[in-house]
Amino acid sequence: MIEVISKLQFKEFETGEFVDEKIRTFKECQKIIEDFPWEKERENIKISLTNPSITFEKPKGIYLKLSTSFSQKFILNYYTEKEGLYSKSLNNYIDSIFYIEQFFKESTFNKIEFRKENTWLKEIKEHFESQDFIYKVTNIKTWRYLIKTSLIHLSLTIFICLMPIFIKNRQLEFYDYLVFGLVCFLVGGGLNIILFLNHYFYTKNKILILSKGNNIFWFGNIDNPIKFNKIDILNFTTISYKNRRSPISEFALLKIEMNNGEILKIPSILLDNYSWERKLFNCKKIEKAKFPFVKN
């Protein structure tokens, strides 16, 4: 009988977050199924493909996942990118052993008792595949951030700045152009460029490793990030202008204050503000409507 990768997922974990991932024998997997705190993890959960579970993984992305389900039941999900998603409801986790043993023994899994799920327009693979939760600035990420935060405002500013060229019978002095251009820069895309460059140069050599379920996280220089613990967080502050009328509403800055007084500054080019709140859900949150400029 072959060995497969097995990994655990708990109720506070986010999509793609697993722990204790290693190659195990079938007997070892039986043991972790029996030892898993199913009833404790079942409390106050919302049923989805990311739930308290044990996932078994073969090469080439072949998965079998035992999870909690509705009404004290369990569910086995079989998934490959080629075949799609299949499921089978179980009354207890003991009933899963037969199918898991088959997964270990057989090169082709027998899905005759499983129901094919409709997964059209749904992202399924991310619920089975392990993610690393490493965040750093890349070329693609930089361009996406620029487009998301500034494209509309920069385009509008360029258009306004070019308008005087097309105005007939109007003689403008150099001073008129200067004032007009300065106003356009400040109220339009200029502020976006200032913040974009500020966030980019602050984070271009930094790395963040942060997930929802793990209290340990790392932040700092990409070659030597510093280890932190969420338990030591006094509070975190999100700084942004949420008013959609503001040209810089898509920019945000996260400040994490540790119990020892250290402040960690994480601009939204590295990780968006919606993810901050999800990953730091157990920490005290403060919101401030301020210019999200990073000071070194």
Q: Secondary-structure element order, as H and E? A: EEHHEEEEHEEHHHEEEEEEHE
Helical fraction equals: 25-40%
Please report which band the strand proportion falls in: under 5%, 5-15%, 15-25%, 25-35%, 35-45% or over 45%: 25-35%
Rough outline: elongated
- Please, what is the average pLDDT? 89
Main pleated-sheet profile = 7 strands, antiparallel
Major sheet: arrangement of strands:
2-1-3-4-5-6-7
State the helix count: 7
What separation lies between the terminal Cα atoms? 57 Å
Describe the structure.
The protein is α+β, with helices and mostly antiparallel strands and 296 residues long. It is built from 7 helices and 15 strands. The strands form 3 sheets. A 7-stranded antiparallel beta sheet has the order 2-1-3-4-5-6-7. Helix 4 (139-166) runs antiparallel to helix 5 (174-187) and helix 4 runs antiparallel to helix 6 (189-203). The radius of gyration is 25 Å and the shape is elongated. The model has no long low-confidence stretch (mean pLDDT 89).
Question: How do you describe this structure in short?
Answer:
Helices cover 30% and strands 28% of the residues.
Spell out the key features of this protein:
single chain; 296 residues; alpha+beta; four-stranded antiparallel β-sheet; 15 strands; 28% strand
Could you give the topology of this structure?
Layout lengths: L3 E6 L9 E6 L1 H10 L2 H5 L10 E6 L3 E7 L5 E7 L3 E7 L6 H9 L9 E2 L17 E3 L2 H28 L7 H14 L1 H15 L2 E4 L6 E6 L4 E4 L3 E8 L11 E7 L4 E5 L5 H7 L5 E4 L8
Parallel strand pairs: 12-15
Antiparallel strand pairs: 1-2, 1-3, 3-4, 4-5, 5-6, 6-7, 8-9, 9-10, 10-11, 12-13, 13-14
